[in-house]
Design goal:
One of its GO terms (biological process) is tetrahydrofolate metabolic process. Helix content is 10%, strand content 40%. The chain is mainly beta. It has one domain (3-82): 2-Layer Sandwich (Folate-binding fold), CATH 3.30.2270. The longest helix is centred in the middle third of the chain and has 9 residues, at 36-44. The chain is globular, with a radius of gyration of 15 Å.
């Protein structure tokens, strides 16, 4: 079991979270001109770095999205930040 820190709810079990996306991965645009290969690469291709990774996760309990920085080797969570424009983080 791994504990993820939700900026809104505090530390929670990883089963309450769902992976949303790699941070910084840009959707190919303009949509009408995107090839099937480019769209497939966007949907199914992942960097899957060994070591430090920045990812977008959603906390299913509160519905808020967060930017999570974690080490994929040690599973250590290095940072969790609320995404801009979302609710107020708990203090």
């Amino acid at each position: 079991m791994q504990i993820f820190p939700c900026p809104f709810c505090g530390p929670r079990d990883e089963t309450e979270f769902h992976f949303a996306a790699e941070a910084g991965k840009h959707r190919p645009e303009p949509a009408p001109e995107v090839t099937d290969t480019a769209w497939s690469d966007y949907l199914y291709g992942a960097d899957a770095p060994k070591g430090r990774a920045r990812e977008v996760w959603v906390h299913l309990t509160c519905g808020e999205f967060l930017l999570l920085t974690r080490d994929t080797v040690t599973r250590e969570v290095l940072d969790a930040t609320a995404l801009p424009g979302r609710g107020e983080a708990a203090t």
